[in-house]
Amino acid sequence: MPRFVTSVQHRLGVRFLETFLDPIPGGPINRYRKTAFQRAWQMARGCGWDLAGDPVVEVAKYEFLRYLAGEKEVLFHASDRVGLAWLEPRSPIAELLDRRWGLYATDDPFLAMARFVMKTPGEGYRGRYMEAFSVRGKPDRLGFVSLAKDLVPAAAAMRGALYVLPREPFVLNCRSHPQSHLSRQLYWLSGRAVQSDFESREWVCDRPVRPLASLPLTLSDLPCGVSWHERTESRLLAMMRYAWRKIPFPAALAPRAEAA
Predict the structure, then answer these.
(1) Total of domains in the chain
(2) At 195, is the secondary structure helix, strand, or coil?
(3) Ramachandran region, residue 249 (left: φ > 0; alpha: ψ -120 to 50; beta: rest)
């Protein structure tokens, strides 16, 4: 492919995403923040690993999780159950013929937090849209999370926990997560400059794991906004309307229908 064509594709694909989507911070963490995060982590070790209410963590929760991912060799698992002393394997490991159960986690805190959206009660058909895009040459990713309009009241009431897990008992899962049709289109239309991150850095363990720490989690903690969509809308159309449909969690109300 000619370099000029690839360059134009790159700019158009990235411009399209930046117009509609929110940036997910990915650059270096300020050293003063790192010092504060380290202090919060050490204090959590002395009080049962519960990070709820820590002022440093509450102000910059996602940044704190990025710090842990880069400095502490840990994994993350989001759950709608709070206060668990042990996490049990509850999902089948598809790659194993003996049908053992596994506990899944990820080394990417945004993917863990976005999967919390999947636990919203309600029917699944076009109920939840989630995307995270890496852009070549840029530290920040671009995120898109959207819920069907009828799921918003239940989502507003959701409370869960994000568990920080040791990496030692886990092994990297080789299963490939299929990209959405939209992700594949953007990959090629941008000259391969835009890559979906939901091919996932996923890890699996076949025995119970004791969390190192836990943080309270709601949808307002995601580093990008959460919007709503109609179930009849495609993922592309919901993405183009994402910017002006964001829900003000946690005090979210069911959105009113758009004017005709």
Answers:
(1) 1
(2) strand
(3) beta
Query: Is 74 strand, coil or helix?
Result: strand
Specify if 200 maps to a domain: yes
Q: What is the pTM of this model?
A: 0.81
Spell out the alpha helix ranges (H) of 159-253.
181-189, 235-240
- pLDDT tens-digit series, residues 59-117: 678 888 999 988 888 999 999 888 888 998 877 665 554 456 788 899 889 988 888 88
**92 lies in which domain range?**
3-24+73-240
CA distance 146 to 222: 12
Question: What DSSP letter does each residue of 128-162 carry, written as one string?
Answer: EEEEEEEETT-SSEEEEEEEEGGGHHHHHT--EEE
180, part of any domain: yes
Q: Residues 185, 186, 192, 198: what is their CA dihedral angle, to the nearest 10 degrees?
A: -100
Residue from 156, 154, 150, 114 nearest 229 by CA: 150
Query: Residue 24: CA atoms inside 13 Å, Cβ hemisphere, count?
Result: 28
Question: ω before 250 within 30° of 0 (cis)?
Answer: yes
Q: What is the DSSP letter of 228?
A: E
The CA angle 138-143-147, to the nearest 5 degrees, is 175
For residue 35, tell me if it sits in a domain.
Answer: no
Give me the pLDDT at residue 75, please. Answer: 93
Yes or no: say if 160 and 78 are a contact pair by the CB < 8 Å rule. yes
In terms of phi and psi (left: phi > 0; alpha: psi -120 to 50; beta: otherwise), the region of 198 is: alpha
Please check whether residue 51 lies inside any domain of the structure. no
Mapping DSSP to helix (H, G, I), strand (E, B) and coil, where does residue 165 land?
A: strand
